[in-house]
Amino acid sequence: MSETALAKDTAPVxxxxxxxxxxxxxxxxxxxxxxxxxxxxxxxETLAIVGxxxxxxxxxxxxxxxxxxxPPGRITSGSARxxxxxxxxxxxxxxxxxxxxxxxxxxxxxxxxxxxxMTIGDQIAEPxxxxxxxxxxxxxxxxxxxxxxxxxxxxxxxAKQYPFEFSGGMLQRAMIxxxxxxxxxxxxxxxxxxALDVTIQAQILDLMQDxxxxxxxxxxLITHDLGVVARMADxxxxxxxxxxxxxxxVDDVFYRSAHPYxxxxxxxxxxxxxxxxxxxxxxxxxxxDLFAPPPGCGYCARCPYAMQLCNVRHPDDFFLKExxxxxxxxxxxxxxxxxxxxxxRDKE
Length: 348
Description:
The protein is of the alpha/beta class.
């Protein structure tokens, strides 16, 4: 084995999160928003974290970046290592060394995430001054270049404008320019195509993929849009009630779905393929109360395959293959409802 290959094998994973748990104190009690999340992502990979609103997707990455207000929030357990160095807890790296420099983030609503009193160019230039030591003129010129890379026309003129003068799609491009300004190793995109029309959505996704090819950065994509996942992701983590219930490659999750919740999401997704068209079936019921999470599987009350055990004991991780696992008792060797194969197929 060559020295280069050996170094690659022994190098730590770019980002590895283990057993992350986050709680919030509220007037109604303690909300257990994230309940033991594990994932990892390496250079050039795209990990999609999928799930319905309130399942803990955004809280997971915000906790990792130190964006959770404490109090009322607190990280009760877990580890997040960037190239082997801890970013949580007392011995973590300085947050300023991480945010913007190592990890860039595209927030869900650019209109409320940008400062309305500063020009777009000044907001993109600011991280370059803080993290890279650029002068104002150097940083502003780089901001103009980044706006051009982000496919914003007349970048020099647009850099002197304020957020209210931009459309929704242009604001999202400006957010991308800001997020990549310091050439981060990881780009976190929190619902990057929300509230955008379909043509602008496609342009934003193409832009992210082009930038990833150019820089080799990893992308963590947070979404509930399975169409975006199919187009962008290499790996998919399906999240429900603060836990990851299925994880695998994008082909595994879409074509060999191993958890009833994943199957429910697919049945509720429209398709333009005539051979796959079916009546859209919503997932009945509501997510569990995270003030008092159930002792068993969080999806039990909504699951058509639920067994008595599901209600009282949380399922183990059942690996269908090395890189694909599901937290579902149906895959236990003694399950009376065990599928003929190790995964579910859509019923005809």
